[in-house]
Amino acid sequence: MQRSSGVSDVVIGLIDGPVAMDHPDLAASKIHMSGGAAGACTMTESFACQHGTFVAGILSARRGSSAPAICPGCTLLLRTIFPESNATNGDMPGATPLELASAIRETVQAGARVINLSAALFQPTSAGVQKLQEALDFAAARGAITVVAAGNQGTLGSSAITRHPWVIPVAGCDLNGRPLSESNFGSSIGRRGLRAPAEAISSLGSDGHPRSFGGTSAAAPFVTGTIALLWSEFPSATAAQIKSAVLYAGGMRRNTVVPPLLDAAGAYEVISAARA
Fold first, then answer.
1. What is the pLDDT of residues 229-261, one digit of tens each?
2. How many other CB atoms are there within 10 angstroms of residue 16's CB atom?
3. Which class is domain 11-274?
4. Which burial class, exposed, middle or buried, applies to 94 when counting CB atoms under 10 A from its CB (0-12, 13-18, 19+)?
C-alpha cells in the first residue's frame, strides 16, 4: 500500500451485495456494474447493502477513510448477488451454486482478473455444483484468480468452492494473526489457502458511518486487494506467478488444516526476485 494505490487496468470482480454508491468515501472510486445490473442500494439498512458496502470499502474506499482502502486505484466491477433482505446465515449471506456460477462467468467475461467471493454456499445440488465447478474452471482458464471466504461455522471440512484447485480460500485470524475459532478450516484450506484479519475490522457503513465487522467475509478482501496491488506493480505477471507468490511467500507450506498468514510484502519480494 505504500508503493501503490493500484491501477485502473486491474479489475476486481466483487460478487456481493449492493453498495451504497453515494458514500462520500467511495465518490472517487472506479466502480462499474457487471452487465449493467443495478448495484446501488435501495435499502441502506438491509444486510446485503451493509455487507456489500463494507467489503467494497476494504477494497476501494478513499485512502485515509475509516476503511482499509487497499486498492482504490483499481477498477471495482460489482456483480450483485444477495437480495436486500435479512441474512439467513448469521454474518455471511449466501447464494446457490447456479447463482454463483452465473455471476463468476459474467464477471470474468467482463474483464475481472481477481474475483472476491464472500458468500456461503446454499442448496448444493449435484447439478448446481457441477455448474459451479465449470465456472471456476472457466475463470482459471481465462487467467482470473478467485478468492473465497472459508466460512464462519467453526468446522473442519471443505465445500465445492474451497476444494477447487485454482481457488484461494481465506480463513480468519485475530489482529495478532492467531486463527479464530469461528473460522472454518480444513485440508484444502490449509494446502491452498491463507489466513487474514477477520476480527474487529473497520470499514464503511451503508448509512455513512464507520462500521466494525468480522468473519471471513472481511478476511477475503485483504487477500483480493493484495493480489490486485501485486498485479498493479507487476502488470505482465501471469496469474500463476501472482498466485504462487501469494501462497508461498513464506516458503514451503506445512501439511496442516490452518493456512499461513497473508504476507503481502513477502509476495512482492518473491515476484521481484523472480523477475530480477
1. 999 999 999 999 999 999 999 888 888 999 999
2. 28
3. alpha beta
4. middle
